[in-house]
Specification:
- By secondary structure, the protein is mostly helical.
- The protein has a single domain (30-402, 434-501), classed as Hydantoin permease (Orthogonal Bundle).
- The protein has 22 helices and no strands.
- The protein has helices at 16-27, 30-42, 49-74, 78-85, 90-123, 130-138, 153-172, 174-201, 206-214, 224-237, 244-249, 258-291, 295-298, 302-317, 319-356, 360-378, 384-414, 418-428, 435-462, 470-493, 512-520, 523-540.
- The chain binds 4-fluoro-L-phenylalanine.
- The site of 4-fluoro-L-phenylalanine has 13 residues, from helix 2, helix 5, helix 10 and helix 17.
Length: 541
Amino acid sequence: MSDTNQQPGREVFSSRAAFLFAAIGSAVGLGNIWRFPYVAYDSGGGAFLVPYIVALLTAGIPLLFFDYAIGHRFRGSAPKSFHRLRSWAEPVGWIQTGVAFFITIYYSVIVGWALLYAFKSLSQPWGDDADSYFFNDFLRMDASHLMTLDFVWPITIALLVVWVLVIGILVAGVDRGIGIVSKIFIPLLAVLFIIVVIFSLTLDGAAEGLNALFTPDWSALKNPTVWLSAYGQIFFSLSVAFGIMLTYSSYLKPRSNLTGTGLVTAFANSSFEVLAGVGVFSTLGFMAMQSGVPIKEVATSGIGLAFVAFPTVISQMGGFLGGAFGFLFLLSLFIAGITSLMSLLEVVVGAAQDKFNLSRSNAVLGIGGVMAVIALILFPTTSGLVSLDIMDKFTNSVGIVAVAIIAIVVVDWLLHRTEELALHLNAVSSFRVGNIWRICVANLTPVVLFVMLFQEIITLVDTPYGGYTAGQVVLFGWAVLAVIFIGSMIMTIIPWRGEQFLAGPPGSDFGVRTARKLEARPPKQAIELDDTAATTKEEKK
Ligand code: PFF
């Protein structure tokens, strides 16, 4: 059997460590640092850990395995993997790619801000009014226009730097770019962030901050919204079900312990989240004490936390100490952001590379270049915050949730392929999955996600998001969703270029039967069989 027709070597992560750090780098992002602490505080404090852990075990980890299984078994980017599952399922992969496309472009500008603010911490140009500085001096925000082409130059340059960096990393390759950078940046991030947290614990008022965060409000557990928030947080934070983990696992060697690695990723991600909670609330405790107000008045999340509250604290500390603390915090945010950004961009690059049979560098430079230009037109302008805010809301609250439901419904409800994925996971992994896993993925998760989506859509239809004008919300919100959806159909219709193995059932080598055979063999052979399945079919073409 020759494998001359085999797709010229799909790249692989050379070691488990490279993949593991890349997966952790993807999961640990802005969401961990600026989203978790406030969500936990706002949803029952210490008591939130209960729904959080339940959501982690019943949705986060099961979906992580689900993503890993699809990417690894079908060895392709999202569209290719879904095409291999069944050709009509290809649009699901493109919807995932589309969601990643839009998240990548706006996420990149926040990473750029973090880079600029890290350096600004050293001189603290905001004085004692970080709020007005951020919106008026730094962003020069103008919410009254749909779109201005009035560029804010420092942000434009920072954004350009971010794009040059990620494009450079991705051109270097999956293993030599993403793998190596993750192996360096993630341990570095851990060290920097632990220093930030330890330092924050020594601040006056830290204890009050931690009490505010961790004092359990058990009555919150009776509130369904708190449970939904827990699922929402886990879902966002682990980067599951929209192509990222699927794409990364497609670069794993055939013999890879998927579930074992997944458990480590999930555990590391949650540990980082709790650590961020400690650091953020100790700091907010200090801020409350300095300003003489209760914690609830300073508690915040997102952009307000990183670019207003933290800078305020930095000035309150003042001098060298404030500068060093701010620099380390914002640098951590930058590192956490850029490793997630690489993974988001890789979803789009991988998809383009597969579909058009491109070399890695052409795919990265081509598609990355186009995305960089779009990001540079939309976000570093005076109207950039408006488009960013709306796009973030719609891609996250609607896009990610909807595509996760669609993926589960297609793979399990319509194609009945979850068993095959379970067999695949068990054939290659240490930790075995069974019926409970399937129930979590196929029954429980879609129901929870559907309730979340339904509520969000009702609210979004009811009141224009964030008090923006209808034009702004339609253009950067609803139209983006429409583009993702229509774009996925168009991309599916375009033929695959080059000789590619794309076949799916009926009669293909994928399916429960092969998976069963695979499971019955000792791991090494099992994988060889799995690989040959792909090659043989290709040869027949
Ligand atoms: N999980 C990463 C984070 O928490 O920031 C990456 C990410 C997930 C970014 C989902 C954006 C997103 F919508």
